């Protein structure tokens, strides 16, 4: 094998780096020239909801059943909600669209599920509402036509003097002029009296719409409504054509900052509601991890013992390559990072079997070539070249299956299926590298100068 020594050095460096990553929770690599950090990364193993416990919530577009939800808007809403949850300090979040109007959200390891659910319910749907000449008190809950069929046809505002219903909700339906989707940026500021407010800048298309509306509705009230609750209702004194405005109200500093973060992360293109939520305890997860680790150790030990007993010296070399494979795989899982679930661990263990399968094909071919009278160097090269088509085809078909499973899980919100597909695909790809480079390099390094005729028992002959 050409460049054998080069590959030995590369493999050795990979092993050293993998051991460093695998046994670390945080890694830093500095630039020797200016002593700045080139890499500064947390590499803790990330466990999924089923192993760590946490919260699972099912979200749904809060629009009438007959209203079609655009898939792009649903995907955008998912990304916005994920950004907002990250701003709360909740890490390792998993959010996936499920069907044409639902989002499955998972929050592993959280200790305050009530706060997260409350934050999800407060979707920060910002609406600029036409209130005509009738002011509405701050804190009043109203109904708007946003997300309904009336939104495209309703232009009139409710008659003056509309009174709230007993539950505090206005009986009339107000027309939404524009939503927060037109916001470009939002920041916390203060007015002349020191009260907190949110200053915002509109996008170019929303700027024109806002300018036209404020020009034709002077001396009328424009309600600024957050999640159907009136935040403020200023009167339009003059046209606002520069695309800049302010949201004022009785905000504390924390409330103003929270609202600004929500608006900066993006206004929801569609209203979202929490259909159901459930808390998963960590006890089952800890037991699952313990049993999974035990099963993995037992399975790996049996495989190592089988390879050593049946294939003798080549089997011991394959065991060494298998250890390298395990180190590399864990390194990848921590660096990417991959959120490990119980199905994900199962996918990894299955990929170990795929890695062993490649070695079995190579070694069976090796024994055939040795029986035909060829020397070890020739036998190794011929064994690998003749086993390679079978290894390539079997692993390729498995990767194609993983892609199909991943797409299925992504479409229907089945995160466990996705976890299984990701770890299996990564493991199979890594097993190809191990078979092509690591096992073959080790075989040549250890056996090129050994005469198989002198030691047939070393090869199970």
Structural account:
With 461 residues, this protein is α+β, with helices and mostly antiparallel strands. It has ten helices and 16 strands. The chain has three domains: 4-39 and 281-459, Multidrug efflux transporter AcrB transmembrane domain (Multidrug efflux transporter AcrB transmembrane fold, Up-down Bundle); 54-121, 2-Layer Sandwich (Alpha-Beta Plaits); 126-267, Gyrase A, domain 2. A hairpin with a 2-residue loop joins strand 12 (222-226) and strand 13 (229-232). Helix 1 (4-22) runs antiparallel to helix 7 (282-335), helix 7 crosses helix 8 and helix 9 packs antiparallel against helix 10.
Helices and strands in order:
Elements: H1 4-22, E1 26-30, E2 37-42, E3 46-47, H2 49-52, E4 54-61, H3 71-87, E5 94-98, E6 102-108, H4 113-121, E7 126-130, E8 141-144, E9 169-179, E10 183-190, E11 196-202, H5 204-216, E12 222-226, E13 229-232, E14 244-251, H6 253-264, E15 272-280, H7 282-335, E16 339-340, H8 342-371, H9 376-412, H10 415-447
Parallel strand pairs: 3-16, 8-9
Antiparallel strand pairs: 1-2, 4-6, 4-15, 5-6, 7-9, 7-12, 10-11, 11-14, 12-13
Helix pairs in contact: 1-7, 1-10, 7-8, 7-10, 8-9, 8-10, 9-10
